[in-house]
Amino acid sequence: MDADAIAKKRAERAARKQQGAQTNGPPPPPLEQLIRVREWVPVRDAPEGKRLRVVSWNMLAQSLVRRELFPGSDCLRNKDRFPGLEAELVAYDWDIGCFQEVDCIQEHAATLKRHGYGHVFERGYDNKQHGLMIAWRSNPNASVSFDAPMYKRVVYYDDARPRELYAHTHPDAAPVSDDETDGMASFAPDAAMGSAGAASTTSVSRLTRNIALIVALADSSLESGVIVATTHLFWHPKYAYERARQAAILVQEIEAFRTDPAHADIAHWPVVLAGDFNDQPHSPTYTLLTGQGRTYENELRKELRESRIVHSSVDDVRGMRTANYAHTSTESGDSDRVLGRFRPPARQELLSLKEIQRMFSLPARDGVGSLQSVYGAALPRLITDESGTYFRDRGTKPERYDETERAPPTDPRQCTSTEPMWTMYSSLFHLTLDYILLFPRLSTAHDYPPITALLRPHPDAVLAPGVPRKGVCSSDHVMLGVEILVVIYVERIAFVLATASCRLPASAAAQRVLIVSDPQVVGRDTYADSPAPLFHILRFFSDQYIRKSWRALRSVAAPRADLVVLLGDLSDRGRWYTVYDAWYALQRRWQRLFRGIAIVRSARSPAHALPALVVPGNHDVGLPDARTGQSTPANAAAATWFREAFAPHVDATYTLSNTSNASWNARIPFAVGGNKPTHELVLVDALDLVSMQPLLALPFDSEGTQLAAAKVRAPQTAAMIDALGAELAQPGPHPVRVLFSHVPLARSATEHSCDVPWHTAQHRVRRESHRARVPGGAILQGGDLARTYQNLVQPDVSAWVLDAVQPAAVFSGDDHDHCEVVHRARRPQAAGDGGVPGFARDDVPELTVKAVSMLEGVRRPGYAWLALDVQPEGTPSVAYTPCLLPDQVQLWLLVYVPFLIITLAYVAWWRTKQPYTILPQYTDDVPMHPLGTPRPRAPPQHTQRRFLRTVGTIAVPPVVVWLALQH
């Protein structure tokens, strides 16, 4: 019978025993008789919102229990331990549990399933008797419930290659010099050893068979979730290097896990790491995890030096024991105080201190580049006084069975730590080894998920003389628990999640450009035929949607923008305004919605604000008729006002400068990673491009007569485009160009990706299905049916622009929905070697950016990121990502409408519970009258009127709160 069949038989037998015990046996004793139950204690001033409870516990595997390790314990046999283990598992109403030293998995799995939890269990190695388990609440009726893991990864520390892992997560990192040894002993491998030391990339000092388990759990009730990792690091006190190596590998594995492009949908989720780290708060592992490595570098070097050796188990598995025998020595003594049989490492065989330190350093976000221990951060902030229970309060209390007291502590890490005094308290050892750690969030300015409560630690008076002990705890470790805030408000979190899920691959030195199109802030003429109340409601919700989107992009989104490009149509029908004050008030409205930007109009960068460039749209200044080239109805004064307020100032070459010459055609050079321009943003007046070749005009002929005549209609635009083309004819190198236009260039009906799925593989750009089903959904030549794509710039003009500018990419707006098209018109040798990854060298991708407004015919508005970067070999490159914002209608339907229905149903039910009488209902709510004066009765209140008043009484307070949250 194989192992799986044996496990199945054992599970069935355990289930039968459990069922028989529940049916025939006495009821289980109360929890208070099995364990010492603790309470969840809130943190002072904790914010409100949806909360998640995570616990961590080393359960003490039954296969590791020995009488000599737990003298005096009455809780060592499985039949004595299991009731306490089961009670501890179900006592604290947790949502996610991380467990170490788990065996007897069939029995524990039955307990978890019975109480509404799912789980994954990993032993890691076939001959290992215990393993790791992560469990989650799977009851769909609970307030927090998770589905089966979306992703799972097991980390095998013995086989991990930390240098390769770090190079994968930090491709731009400089290598550590070969002579970096931190003063630690090493030897050069001789001929017999060969390259075993230098070529080995595992950097392992001892084979330990330890593992880590990482899972991504999706919340059943939200489009969100949590990434959870648990581990049990190597136990031996003398092997500090190996523990630090294992922890460093785990940090990098988690970072690689959540930044993997295949996991882009979970990158913004909170990350919790919990487990038994087998190191105390003044140890190297804890010091490095919590970002104190630089502060205590000398202490780390001293503590790691002694354990920077190679155990004979490593040479045994490599078949190098005989070859390295001459370098091997043996220490004798207590097993937990000696290194055993070992040798010094060969050069580069192990990690240096510098390599270990940088593996613990996460990319700094808002100054946060390390993990946060939940107890170390929040235990002093509980509403109860926990004085005397901190790690720093130990004083001279002994840690080992052979000590009566210890010397007074002098290490600042020990004297200041607010971790629990003990998390492991056996008869022989009293230590703090277990932690719950939070990763900094990738996408927010709030550093870490807020901590709202902790599971109160046991005082040493309860744990003494040691556990496991009946009535206290069935393990020698104490369960830890944290409650964190995962959702604050649905209106806020939806925008946070949307902006955080859109990632832009780029190096730290890249310049990041945020592209926003078509906000079309509602003006007085937007809904001229609508009733005034409806107009104000639509304007309110439209403004709030843009405000919440912008707030998320500015304060939450990662990465932060270096520049914003506004692709026109900033206000709706602003071109129709004839009174300056009214026009100015409309422009101020959209500027207030995009709070914190400063319009760039000269070469001087604005201070203390996010610079923004404006491209004019047809709603801002008017658009020539695509068929005749003549101006459409618009107020010339409004176009002049817009130009004078927002157009950039350029010199004779149309480069951004400090002159007073305002033009909608401009060139903005960028120097990435140096002083020489590597990129150039080109803003073109697309309204001129539309007027150059109306549909009624003849195509451009080969001699250029028609082109020359067309240039007369747009002299400034033609002059800049010709100048750009002339520059490319000169010897290079030339900066890589990116073109911005409010109106898209001409798109072929057979090659555009707006409706053709196979063109969307690179960025998954999809047209919204309800738009694609509209009759005439293909690209139109001229005209605007409001729900279709259109070509207003004709093919000949587009070809001329692309041939002269030779951009790496084009960004446009106007059509309100995403569209990605490839123009095959690029000459890499003429415009530098930079291009967009994923496209051919002669491809010029054009992305039409979605409108950022919720009123422009799309359910999910959007925006785009652009990265101007330089590759390691010095080649400029361009990368971009289209992004989506939340569906506001879906938020209303899935959140607010159900709450409204529940409110009405409750009020109707509540009214049925009121006393019933057949007599008419009167009220005495009238003024007092003099004696002898008849006292009139007020008319009876109608039942419907009372019902509405009750609904109003209940509904008004939450509505007021909701309105307050919109700002």
UniProtKB/TrEMBL annotation:
GO molecular function per UniProt: hydrolase activity
GO biological process, one term: GPI anchor biosynthetic process
Membrane topology summary: Multi-pass membrane protein
Calcineurin-like phosphoesterase domain residues: 512-746
Annotated spans, Disordered: 1-32, 389-414
Record's keyword terms, sorted: Membrane, Transmembrane, Transmembrane helix
GO terms for cellular component: endoplasmic reticulum; membrane
Transmembrane residue ranges: 891-909, 947-965
KW GTP-binding (keyword) present: no
The keyword Membrane is assigned to this record: yes
Superkingdom as given in the UniProt entry: Eukaryota
Composition-biased stretches (Basic and acidic residues): 1-15, 391-408
Residue ranges of domain Endonuclease/exonuclease/phosphatase in the record: 56-477
One Pfam family in the UniProt entry: Metallophos
UniProt-annotated location(s): Membrane
Protein name per its UniProtKB record: Endonuclease/exonuclease/phosphatase domain-containing protein
Provenance organism: Malassezia brasiliensis
